Fold:
Amino acid sequence: MRNSIQYLLLPAIMMTVCSVVEIVAGKPVAQNKTSAIALFNGKDLTGWKAEGGARWEVKEGILTGRQGPNNESGDLFTEKSFGNFELSVTYKIVWPANSGIWYRYQSPKQAYQADILEYKKPFALSGTLYCPGKLFLSTNTDASTVNREGWNKMVIRAVGDHHTIFLNDKKVAAAQEGSFKTGRIGFQIHAGDQFGKMKISIKEVSLREISE
Structure:
């Protein structure tokens, strides 16, 4: 009987250990999530809407964004809104740059953003969590998490009031803030001649919706 109980408990113990290892490793873990959906189809801007003067185009499976004439800024947003989710974006950027991934976007003053930048005061790198009017909610200062010349994978997990950002499989930002519950997802191109050479390239945008 004792051996039988041990065999029955073993699967449950293993599942618990695996869960703990996943969390300790610092990787995004989402419970009660749906299958991932591709927000970018690799062909065109179906499902997206551009706002502002930035230039967006799709070529050979890559979405690119640049400033418009006279260093104009602009954004590219999903037509749909999302609330609780795990968003994965694979991107690279030409520096100097000031860009980011909007989420729960309702207006320029009501949104969250996972930044793609190199900010000096206060020091902040890509993966920093920004909220208009509140500046940085959580700051990434670890340069080893950023691949400046190549592709990066940013994962944003937003569930209720909890926000977590992972960059290249490392947790770089986390905060609790509940002003905005739902909104669009998007990409930003910042204005300014200092960012005239900036180009963001995106090859994968996928999302899993999560129930709290």
DSSP finds one helix and 15 strands in the chain. The CA atoms of residues 92 and 151 lie 5 Å apart. The chain has two domains: 1-29, 31-209.
